Amino acid sequence: MKTEIVEGWPQGHEIRILITDTDAAQVNAIRRALMADVPKLSITRVDFSQGVTQDNKGEIVESVNVLPDEVMAHRLAMIPVPTNPDEGLSFPDECSNCMDVVEEDKGCPMCQVLYTLSARGPSSDSEDEFRTVYAGDITTISDPVFDIREEHKTIPLTVLSKGQYLEFYAFAVLGRGRDHAKWSPVAAVGFRPQQIAVLKDAKAAKILFDLGLKTTDGSAIDAKLFGKGKKITDINHVLDLEKALHQVGPGTGRDGTFGEAIVMETVENAYVFSYETDGSLDPVMAFNMAMTELAGRFDEIKGHLQGALA
Ligand SMILES: [Zn+2]
Questions:
Q1: 198 and 230 in contact (C-beta within 8 Å)?
Q2: Fewer Cβ within 10 Å of end Cβ, the chain: N or C?
Q3: In sequence order, which ranges of the chain are alpha helices (DSSP H)?
Q4: Which pTM value belongs to this model?
Q5: For the chain, what are the domain ranges?
């Protein structure tokens, strides 16, 4: 199996990877490893402060808001927590400090990241009726490398009215997507056979070229894009063209004229693999981690087989 990042990617958290010399089963194993096996950090426990309290101006505030605590905890769990395997955090059940202690005592700086939030609704003399609490209001108590990323700070968590407050400590630990979706670092993971577009009939294809469509990088979709060989092999352009072909497909009224003017040919044993991460992991890092997870699993099977057959 050979892998190669498609030119122009990653874009933000999205990536396209060309995997050759493989089959659909192998590529699907990578897909599943990315979704279910690649570890990432996620908030898994929240301790809410509860009760009625008085602030220094004598105003009474109560620990209620529009959301029940369970929903709040779920919203916190879904915030992408920056994860980097180089930080050397352990899984809670593999942590040398916490391995042998009872469940409620588990958790130490080696296996968890600590966050806190303290917010209250507008004061009684304020013109605002309510205030929105965002992921950006969360403070990291552990290392600042785990600070919620700038792009995720605008995730709204809840709304506080006058006389309400929200205060909690939240604990993030490493986990895997197979145990809960909050630990799955990727979304929209898919793959398709690599294709090459072949221009068979430039005259009939004119009905498409005359539409003035462009590829995502701004090139015009016309006969020139196919070049002298009358073929498009560039993966990004082929995918753009595939979308453009919907404009001349069945139901458009153009399909009769267009016919088979452009034909897609499938490349054997080659797949275009694409996904995006939730922002907790860099997409390239996530891919490498998926490969490590897979390799580890096969080593394990090999060991079992050798043990069984010895
Ligand atoms: Zn620990």
A1: yes
A2: C
A3: 24-36, 69-77, 202-209, 223-226, 235-244, 255-258, 283-309
A4: 0.86
A5: 2-37+187-277, 40-180
Q: Walk along the chain (310 residues) and give the pLDDT tens digit of each residue.
A: 999 999 999 999 999 999 999 999 999 999 999 999 999 999 999 999 999 998 888 889 999 988 999 999 999 999 999 998 888 899 988 999 988 888 888 889 999 999 999 999 999 889 999 999 999 999 999 999 999 999 999 999 999 999 999 999 999 999 999 999 999 999 999 999 999 999 999 899 999 999 999 999 999 999 999 988 999 999 999 999 999 999 999 999 999 999 899 999 999 999 999 999 999 999 999 999 999 999 988 888 888 888 888 7
Q: How far is the CA of 130 from the centre of ligand 1 (A)?
A: 39
Q: Give the Å distance between the CA of 131 and the centre of ligand 1.
A: 36
CATH entry 3.40.50.1000 includes domain 40-180: no
Closest by Cα among 294, 289, 295 to 184:
289
Rounded distance from Cα 91 to ligand 1 centre (Å): 8
Report the separation in Å between the CA atom of 92 and the middle of ligand 1, taken as the mean of its atom positions. 6
Ligand 1 geometric centre to CA of 105 (Å): 9
Distance in Å, CA 41 to ligand 1 centroid:
14
